[in-house]
Amino acid sequence: MLMLSTRRTSPPRARRALGAGLAGLLALTGVTALAGTADAATTLASAAAAKGRYFGTAVAANHLGEAQYVSTLNTEFDSVTPENEMKWDAVEATRNSFNFSAADRIVSHAQSRGMKVRGHTLVWHSQLPSWVGGLSATDLRSAMNNHINQVMGHYKGKIHSWDVVNEAFQDGSSGARRSSPFQDKLGNGFIEEAFRTARAADPAAKLCYNDYNTDGINAKSNAVYNMVKDFKARGVPIDCVGFQSHFNSASPVPSDYQANLQRFADLGVEVQITELDIEGSGTSQATSYGNVVKACLAVTRCTGITVWGITDKYSWRASGTPLLFDSNYNKKPAYTAVLSALGGSSGGGDGGGSAACTATYAKAEEWSDRFNGRVTITAGTSAISTWSVTVTLTPPQKISTTWNGTPSWDSSGTVMTMKPNGNGSLAAGASTSFGFTVMKNGTSTPPVIGACTAS
Ligand code: G3I
């Protein structure tokens, strides 16, 4: 997969010059500049790949029109999980009438970028249309199997892992199965039946059981463990167990997280961290994220990590700011901790490395058809030798002129990456600025300024 990146950490001068020349050449030919191995470990995906893992995120189809959402997705991640679009209520709201349009948009985006796709999820008590609950046992069995066959058939060959059954166990100490139409009418055997149907529907897909509050060793994870052990002993097809890993102060990363992943791996299944998010901020959030990544890396069969969203602003629990990018797509200390735990390089951002910068935007002059913007770059507590920042417009706005910087553009002309033009070297705390003129083309929305990165 090719990575689009705006971030480099102290590249050799010759490589930098070559990169600039290549970017210019590509721009002349109308091709977006793509970074290759020079950026090998400066993104989550490339750093994880160097460790033989994927690094994914949940994606919502309705954000795929937002330039910064997409550029962050494309730059940092190599696996996606549709956050809601493959759930039963989304694809089969009416019996045997399937609508794959939103999920298809995510899958085709991923495929066009060489990203993996996790399928989520086939049999789950939640986001289940009410008609399912009204069926008799015989009818429900055939509806469940039909749902699996139709959905997996539609995506056959395109999904690396499916969450075949999701959240089938109760919380607490009982170790019992959760009440659901499937459990209540079909009994314990519904899980096994779903996995057998799934294997036949797409033999190439890995078949996972996925749950939450199973991240440490406890009654619920013991119950799942016993089920997986039984499945392996009896040849029921199961390839992986997903650990959702939704954490907060009331439910922190368990101290036996790694040991728990390991005991499942020892049963002969892959383990995947499937919905990671950790409420909090700053160093404590970063430390927790780093610990999760280290635990996965320490378990050979832990094959990948998926975070449950890209930016805090679209998280299912946004007020807990649980993700790696803040609402303005700035990399958080948690991002730096994850990258560093993956063995990547943390040249800038808020949380690590000594070189850092901030970017602030101010509107200057405005006319009926255009306005000028100015971005001030300020070095952090150490001197920096270069900086980079993105400016994202609202289409059909266009930038007509820039000054005091070296711009490059994404293929749509919506995202400008600005680098220094002789003003890259800043003492600790010192500032410089660049400017640009935005042609409104009918919209006066201010541009969104991305994270400032420095080295
Ligand atoms: O799309 C509609 C919108 O049209 C409507 O105006 C709005 C008003 O309620 O609702 C929107 O749908 C919401 C949907 O997310 C999309 O944003 C649903 O109400 C809301 O219930 C749904 O929440 C999802 C939740 O699963 C439902 O159980 C979250 O986005 C999603 O992150 C969350 O994901 C689950 C995993 O699938 C399984 N593990 C737990 C995880 C977190 O709860």
TrEMBL record:
<protein>
    <recommendedName>
        <fullName>Beta-xylanase</fullName>
        <ecNumber>3.2.1.8</ecNumber>
    </recommendedName>
</protein>
<dbReference type="GO" id="GO:0030247">
    <property type="term" value="F:polysaccharide binding"/>
</dbReference>
<keyword id="KW-0326">Glycosidase</keyword>
<dbReference type="InterPro" id="IPR008965">
    <property type="entry name" value="CBM2/CBM3_carb-bd_dom_sf"/>
</dbReference>
<keyword id="KW-0732">Signal</keyword>
<dbReference type="Pfam" id="PF00331">
    <property type="entry name" value="Glyco_hydro_10"/>
</dbReference>
<dbReference type="InterPro" id="IPR017853">
    <property type="entry name" value="GH"/>
</dbReference>
<keyword id="KW-0624">Polysaccharide degradation</keyword>
<keyword id="KW-0119">Carbohydrate metabolism</keyword>
<feature type="active site" description="Nucleophile">
    <location>
        <position position="275"/>
    </location>
</feature>
<feature type="signal peptide">
    <location>
        <begin position="1"/>
        <end position="35"/>
    </location>
</feature>
<keyword id="KW-0858">Xylan degradation</keyword>
<comment type="similarity">
    <text>Belongs to the glycosyl hydrolase 10 (cellulase F) family.</text>
</comment>
<dbReference type="InterPro" id="IPR031158">
    <property type="entry name" value="GH10_AS"/>
</dbReference>
<dbReference type="InterPro" id="IPR001919">
    <property type="entry name" value="CBD2"/>
</dbReference>
<dbReference type="Pfam" id="PF00553">
    <property type="entry name" value="CBM_2"/>
</dbReference>
<keyword id="KW-0378">Hydrolase</keyword>
<feature type="domain" description="GH10">
    <location>
        <begin position="38"/>
        <end position="341"/>
    </location>
</feature>
<dbReference type="InterPro" id="IPR012291">
    <property type="entry name" value="CBM2_carb-bd_dom_sf"/>
</dbReference>
<dbReference type="GO" id="GO:0031176">
    <property type="term" value="F:endo-1,4-beta-xylanase activity"/>
</dbReference>
<dbReference type="GO" id="GO:0045493">
    <property type="term" value="P:xylan catabolic process"/>
</dbReference>
<dbReference type="InterPro" id="IPR044846">
    <property type="entry name" value="GH10"/>
</dbReference>
<dbReference type="InterPro" id="IPR001000">
    <property type="entry name" value="GH10_dom"/>
</dbReference>
<feature type="domain" description="CBM2">
    <location>
        <begin position="350"/>
        <end position="455"/>
    </location>
</feature>
